[in-house]
Amino acid sequence: MTSQRNSSFRFTRLTQNQKKHFTHLDALMATPGGVAQETWLFVGAHDDDICIGAGFWLQAAVQAGVTVWALIVTDGRMGYCTAEQEPNIAQIRHQEALASFEILGLPADRILFLDYPDNDLAAHQGRRKARPGQRNLGGYTGLQNDFTWQLRHLRPQRLFIPAESDTHPDHKITYTELMISIFHATGAIWPELGRPLVSAPVIYEAAIYEDFRTPPNLELQADAQAYERRLQSVLAYESQGQIAGVIEEIKALGAYEYLYEHPFPQYNPRQYRQRFA
Predict the structure, then answer these.
(1) Less packed terminus of the chain by CB within 10 Å, N or C?
(2) Number of domains in the chain
(3) Is residue 64 part of a domain?
């Protein structure tokens, strides 16, 4: 495992073409009491999505003392690259994920695996009564059931998710099911899933395979140690032969990552009154 000595990070926030630079996460997030008082939840449709899209941000959060959780939605069963891997690929990727997150500084007890079937999330959208043998929280199953429960129990102030623009079906469904689950989690619906959130978390979209639809407004620049840890965390997925292209992109870009930060986009018609006045 690579060294866990503290790294240095630099951040830039872009607001209406005005750039503000920061050397500390507390200043960037303008959090009363500091980010060490917060909980951040990083969600990946697949085990390798988080280190690819937000491996530096996760490192910076861990180093700053944030309570960090990683939530992996699928079991990776369709990620086999050889016929020999196919029978055991889910177990292989589970172990690779533990190794990858350990390199980034996140211990195994902060990683949550939902184990929905890879490439089949469409069959698990929504919420329905659980049948015998199905995932069961409060007597129900489905992505919205799981996500609402996780949001209410972890109560994150900040939520990191796959970018809305990504057309990979698992990434897109993870995004849409999380967004509606935020709406559920802040309301009184489904009380068996826990106490409603007082407010919605701030949302951060991370691009994994496809570009952002709305350009990012946050940049992180890492030092050589954090860069090496992120690179090694991706390389930990030794079973994933197709990841070579991602490695080349990481090497070409260097020690930078980008996020699009936005609040939960709940509809408020008042914002349009002036247009029609």
Answers:
(1) C
(2) 1
(3) yes
Candidates 203, 201, 204, 244; CA nearest to 39 is 201
pLDDT score recorded for residue 2: 45
Phi-psi region of 194 (alpha: psi -120 to 50; beta: other; left: phi over 0): left
Contact in structure between 229 and 103 (CB atoms under 8 Å): yes
* CATH code, 54: 3.40.50.10320
In a domain, 7, yes or no: no
Q: State the pLDDT confidence band at 148, using cuts at 50, 70 and 90.
A: very high
Angle value at C-alpha 104, between 202 and 174, nearest 5 degrees: 45
- For the question of whether the overall pTM of this predicted structure is more than 0.85, the answer is yes
Q: In this structure, is residue 67 part of a structural domain?
A: yes
Contacts of 53 (CB under 8 A, 6+ apart): 44, 162, 163, 206, 207, 208, 257
**Structural domain containing residue 113:** 21-265
Residue 251: CB atoms within 10 A of its CB come to 10
